[in-house]
Specification:
The complex is a heterodimer of chains A (about 120) and B (about 130). Chain A has about 120 residues and is mainly α. Chain A has a single domain, classed as 3 helical TM bundles of succinate and fumarate reductases. Chain A contains five helices and no strands. In chain A, helix 2 packs across helix 4 and helix 4 runs antiparallel to helix 5. Chain B is mostly helical. Chain B has a single domain, classed as Up-down Bundle (3 helical TM bundles of succinate and fumarate reductases), CATH 1.20.1300. Chain B contains four helices and no strands. The longest helix of chain B has about 30 residues. The termini of chain B are far apart. At the A-B interface, helix 2, helix 3, helix 4 and helix 5 of A face helix 1, helix 2 and helix 3 of B.
């Protein structure tokens, strides 16, 4: 025991059982989105209201398709984690659990739908 | 450690008792914009899904998203996106342990508000 540092002896003794990985996830995804979101705005934006043939041809190209796919995937995971913190701040008990499950399901469903659509256009 | 006064303790002042300040309002707006972006994001996913189906379904989705209400949502989402991005940068600065003094925090707040409006206008002009 005497050879353990104070920190080593404390690790795992708390009630939380997990560290700051949620916050770190938010940092990583936010930095990724800082790059992706401007790219997405200026590739997706001009296509809004464009003819169907143009839209399909544009998102069949690698760069716009990859940017759109990454933005949707990373964006919805960032939303899932961020909305979860908001839910944890304002609700508790069963309401909290139901809302977190709902947000998680919506986020994955929307991300999967978006990726499927882009794959179908691109391939 | 007998807690004889349980349930009858004075509450600390909550949100509504404070005068709104730039730092608090910009912080609350970060959360509001982040959650509100779900609407525009779902519309965007639907637009992609419709485009992958064919011209007919695409015309429906594109019609909704470029209608007056759709334009309003997408324009609002554009501002929300820039606002949330700049506010996120502010949080990254704070996370690194910098910018906590009142003067810097206020300057960053104004930078987020003004920057988001300028970027939104610039984006609309460019696109």
């Amino acid at each position: 025991m005497a050879y353990l540092t104070d920190r080593k002896r404390a690790v795992g003794m708390g009630a939380a059982k997990s560290g700051p990985h949620h916050h770190w996830n938010m940092i990583v995804s936010s930095v990724a989105l800082l790059i992706l979101v401007p790219l997405f705005i200026f590739t997706f934006g001009p296509m809004l209201g464009a003819p169907h043939a143009d839209v399909v041809a544009y998102f069949a190209r690698p760069f716009p398709a990859i940017v759109a796919g990454l933005t949707i995937a990373v964006g919805f995971m960032h939303f899932k984690n961020g909305a979860q913190v908001a839910i944890e701040d304002y609700t508790d008990g069963l309401t909290r659990q139901v809302l977190i499950i709902a947000v998680t399901c919506i986020s994955y469903a929307a991300a999967a739908t978006g990726l499927f659509a882009i794959a179908r256009i691109a391939l | 450690m007998a807690d004889v006064n349980r349930g009858n303790r004075p509450l600390s002042p909550h949100l509504q008792i404070y005068r709104p300040q730039l730092t608090s309002i910009t912080s609350i707006l970060t959360r509001i914009t982040g959650n509100a972006l779900l609407l525009g994001a779902i519309l965007t996913v639907w637009w992609f899904l419709a485009a992958s189906y064919g011209a007919e379904y695409f015309a429906t989705a594109d019609g909704v998203i470029t209608s007056f209400l759709g334009d309003l949502i997408m324009f609002g989402s554009l501002w929300a996106l820039w606002y949330h991005a700049l506010a996120g940068v502010r949080h990254l600065i704070w996370d690194s342990g910098r910018g906590f003094d009142l003067g810097t925090a206020t300057k960053l707040g104004w930078a987020v508000v003004i920057g988001s409006v300028v970027l939104t206008i610039l984006t609309v002009i460019v696109i």
